Amino acid sequence: MKTNSSKIMQIIGKIICFFVVFYVLFNASVNCIIFPFAIGMMYALVWANQKVWLVVPTYILAGVAHSATLEFSICLLVQSFAILFPYFVHVLCKKNMRKWEFGVYALVGQTANLVFDILGGVSPLVCAISLLLSVLFMFVCIGLFEAIIIRGFTNKLTNFEIVSLFCIIAVLCSGLAITNIATFSFLKLFVGFVLLVFAYCASPFLTLLVASTAGIGSLIATNNPLFVTPFVIWAVAVLLFKKRFRIFMVVALACVEVVIGFYFRLYATFSVVEALPLVIACVVFMVLPKKVYDNFAAIFNLSKDRLAMKNVVNRNREILYKRLGNLSEIFNDMNMIYRNMIKRGMNFEDAKVVLKQEICDKICSYCPERSHCLRTFADKTDQVFDQLVTVAYEKGKATVLDMPSFLTSRCKQTNGILGSINTLTSQYKKYIGMVKDVDTSKMIVADQLQGVSKIMGKLAKEVETNISFDTTLENKILDELTYYNIICIDAIVYEKDVWTQEVSVVVRNEDCTKPRIVDVVSKVCNCKMQVCDMFECSRPGYTIVNIKTAPKFDCLFAISQKTKSGSNVSGDTYSIVKLDGDKILFAISDGMGSGDKAESVSELAISLVENFYKAGFDNEIILSTVNKLLSLHKEEIFSALDLCVLDQRSGMLDFVKMASPCSYILNENECKKIQTGSLPLGIVEEISPLTNKQVASSKDFVILLSDGVCDSFETDEQLQEAIKSIKTKNPQEFADLLLESALSQNNGYAVDDMTVVVVKILDF
Fold first, then answer.
1. What CA–CA distance (Å, rounded) separates 491 from 153?
2. Can you give the pTM of this predicted structure?
3. 363-394: string of b/e by CB count within 10 Å (b at 16+)?
4. Are residues 258 and 151 both part of a single domain?
5. Domain boundary pick from 466, 481, 516
6. Is 456 helix (H, G, I), strand (E, B) or coil?
7. CATH number, position 753
């Protein structure tokens, strides 16, 4: 029951509001000759999704109250039919009406007015002006309703919407100027309340502007500047006490009205009844709760809240910078601790001394010839033991054939000596391997800690400087998007770094994919922009679109592959990954051999490299860590790696090559060769990858190849000629033709797994 009662009260409230507004607008005129405003308001309310069964009857009722003549009633019915008929047609067809269609219907609806005016001798010029003003006022009302009724009071008005608001205030004042009961002025009541609200919620400039607008509105209707000066004086009075309590503003307004009326005598007559409208306005202003004014202030003073928000952002960045710096130091200290924990084990020369002594203690100590042997053959025996330990360590086992004849002829413990040497040497090798694995694991952990420390340091530098926001550009973006009918309730413009400007706009879900958003932001920011991501806003029905400065270069890439003839699985794996900082990684990993094992090796290597790059580690740490991880594997697994990173901002190409074939950069003038080098990943503990930096230009082709393609050609020169002979500008076609050319060298037979990655550099 309560719900139904509240709905009924809302409907009654709307009817009363509509009736009052329509009645005032029926009185609004230009010099009491042109009355074009009421129909524009009625059509705008229908467009703003106000219930047509409330708006149209109330409009007719207000029109009849204004003038009950037959001609005027016919005009009201024609105007109403001109919107009702197309409205229900669009509802039945389930098609929304567009703004320009409302303009057409508004013109059609005034045909009866036009006929009666012409028959009554009204000038055609006056008729044309009336038609034009009615349509223009409709679009002005739509501009404001789009902000307030559809978006709500929680969003800042754009410049166009503020202009629309002031136009409506001027028109209302025009109608109120001749809507009086005896000497009671509804114009003073309205303007007094509006001035208090603007002074309390908006800027002083807007308050003075609304005072001037109200005075001009009354002037347009009556050709009398009576209220222009008093309204401006009212505005100045209330602004003097803007920072005080509301009661001071009210007292100031009442006092200045008394001074104007009784002392300066700006009005023709002034009495208690004539001061009553302003008193009622002051009482209403004081009675309304502060929450109402807070909602109204949001559409004008949102920048204050956003300024506080921006300060909070920069304050949080400062805190984050300090914490990241501390974390970086912690991880660096942990890195040093792990490096100091590395034992590295006993070297072989020292180990031989220990092994020889243990053999003597274990075998020779029980030999009856021990004393004689040590006195006579001590040096030779030590040399023999040294040689046997070396042979056992290098070959894995020492035999009788490795023992000199003088020892086998006189020593009865040769079998025991050989057994002990082989056993102890094997144990030493296992110990060294275990220590090496432990040290390698510690090195991996230390490298990762060092890498994390560097990443933390980079992040700290990124957030060290305060973000610079640009309120001027934000307002321009809001205005431009509104002009193109894209509802944007907020926009933030800030500089992320010296290269990147970022913009976040909050738009309706149905608008978020419109290309016009990027066009507008690019135009306002005076640079090429691109959408980097978008996600759902906390406010239902809206999406946050993040846009940033577009890099200088973009690229197209293509891959063409062929598995080795007779093999089911390719041992080549490729990766193309978008990295932070406008960088793109292209890589080919070639596992040694072909088939399932080669595929698993190449996939493991490329996955490790890819994920480390995504995390932001440096080249040296990535390759060193991946190499150590592969070397820890129980089986011997090796992988060649060909890697290229494109910096889209500068066009710089970073090549990293480990046992991979040569790469090539093809442009109109030459085919540049990028040399190869280094051992594959996983063979030795310490690696020295070959690195090369090149600067790319637009329309360059970057070509990465696996060894199956390169080995198909007899010489590098033959491969370069094959690359130069391809004239297509399509990277996919280029990759396919190069692979076909490689296969043709062996009559279509793939000597190994073959992979071609072609990257075409383009201007963004």
1. 16
2. 0.53
3. bbeebeeeeebeeebeeebeebbeebbebbbe
4. no
5. 466
6. helix
7. 3.60.40.10
Spatial contact of 759 and 702, defined as CB atoms under 8 Å apart: yes
**605 plus 699 within the same structural domain:** yes
Q: Determine the 3-state secondary structure of 233 from DSSP.
A: helix
**Surface-to-core class of residue 482, CB atoms within 10 Å of its CB (0-12 exposed, 13-18 middle, 19+ buried):** buried
Which three-class secondary structure state does DSSP give residue 534?
A: strand
Q: Which DSSP string do the residues of 330-370 spell out, in sequence order?
A: HHHHHHHHHHHT------HHHHHHHHHHHHHHHTGGG-TTH
573 and 459 inside one domain:
no
Number of domains in the chain: 5
What is the greatest pairwise CA distance in the chain? 150
Tokens of 300: 């004008």
Q: How far is CA 115 from CA 41, 118, 123, 243, in A?
A: 22, 5, 12, 55
DSSP category for residue 569: S
Which structural domain range is residue 130 located in?
Answer: 14-155
Ranges of residues in the chain whose predicted pLDDT is under 50: 1-2, 302-305, 308, 312, 634, 682, 684
DSSP 52-109: HHHHHHHHHHHHHHH---HHHHHHHHHHHHHHHHHHHHHHHHT-PPPHHHHHHHHHHH
Dist CA 440 CA 640 (whole Å): 21
| pLDDT at site 494 | 77
Dihedral sign for Cα 248, 249, 255, 256, please.
Answer: positive
**How many C-beta atoms surround the C-beta of residue 526 within 10 A?**
9
Give residue 202's pLDDT.
81
For residue 438, the model assigns a pLDDT of: 67
In a domain, 709, yes or no: yes
In a domain, 171, yes or no: no
- Sequence letter at residue 48: A
pLDDT of residue 330: 64
Q: Six-digit token pair at 742?
A: 């490689």
Q: Which two tokens stand for residue 422?
A: 């082989």
Alpha-helix runs per DSSP H in 288-342: 290-340
State residue 19's pLDDT score: 92
Sequence-ordered list of residues with C-beta below 8 angstroms from that of 494, at least 6 positions apart, any chain: 467, 468, 469, 470, 501, 502
Are the C-beta atoms of residues 151 and 49 closer than 8 Å to each other?
no
* pLDDT for position 634: 46
CA distance linking residue 317 with residue 465, whole number of Å: 8
Task: Give, in order, the Cα–Cα distances in Å from 407 to each of 367, 403, 415.
Answer: 14, 7, 12
Label the pairing between strands 652-658 and 488-495.
unpaired
Chain Cα centroid distance, residue 197: 38
Give pLDDT, residue 260: 84
Confidence (pLDDT) at 60: 92
